[in-house]
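Figure 6 in text form: structure in, sequence out.
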């Protein structure tokens, strides 16, 4: 019986059978997966991503079609590296190892983004989209104290969410950073922009800070409007 290391045996990392004479896929770390194990692992991974990201569920046959494209592209090119083969084996992967020249399977990007346009995931979009929405609401709301809530309520809720995201990041970093971020607003700003390395959270928190300026001005002016009649009374 041949040992796995002899004669370049291609041993599946999951079922440990020799798959050198069968359809197979090789990952970045040089491990082999027979087609059955690879397909099963990719299906599991896709199901997990759907459960986590919960986008509008694509038709079942569409998802399988993408996976088959991906698997076929990967296994037909012997030297190709998978973009992210973390599903079969949860070992440490060199996540930043792929340079510009690495051929990526045609289906990889679609598989990762799950049908959502790529720009929605960019950090600048996390800045531009809420800025536009809050800007329009501000223009609608600023005419009168009666309509101010059209801007003030969404701005408040948005800032709350952005603040909670920063807080979660802080507590992930450590208990001290979390408590400081919760109690000390200057530290919150410092943490959000200098320590936190999530560009989306930076963008959202930046919008919440910027949009709080017109919100405070609006509240201040409403306060004056409410006080003035009393002040004018004899
Ligand atoms: Zn296998």
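Output sequence:
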């Amino acid at each position: 019986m041949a040992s796995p290391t002899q004669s370049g045996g291609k041993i599946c990392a999951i079922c440990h059978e020799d798959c050198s004479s069968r359809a197979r896929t090789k990952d970045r770390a040089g491990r082999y997966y027979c087609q059955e194990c690879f397909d099963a692992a990719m299906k599991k991974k896709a199901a997990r991503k759907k459960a986590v990201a919960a986008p509008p569920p694509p038709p079942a046959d569409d998802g399988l079609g993408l996976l088959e494209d991906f698997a076929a592209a990967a296994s037909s090119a012997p030297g190709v590296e998978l973009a992210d083969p973390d599903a079969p084996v949860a070992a440490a992967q060199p996540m930043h190892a792929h340079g510009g020249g690495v051929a990526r399977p045609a289906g990889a990007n679609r598989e990762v983004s799950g049908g959502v346009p790529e720009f929605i995931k960019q950090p600048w979009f996390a800045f531009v989209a809420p800025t536009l929405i809050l800007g329009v609401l501000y223009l609608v709301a600023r005419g009168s104290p009666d309509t101010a809530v059209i801007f003030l309520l969404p701005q408040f809720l948005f800032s709350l969410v952005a603040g909670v995201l920063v807080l979660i990041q802080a507590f992930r970093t450590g208990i001290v950073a979390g408590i400081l971020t919760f109690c000390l607003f200057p530290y919150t700003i410092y943490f959000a922009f200098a320590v936190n390395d999530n560009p989306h959270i930076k963008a959202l928190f930046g919008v919440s800070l910027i949009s709080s300026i017109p919100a405070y001005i609006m509240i201040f002016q409403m306060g004056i409007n409410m006080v003035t009649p009393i002040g004018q009374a004899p």
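Caption detail: The first strand starts at residue 24 and ends at 26.
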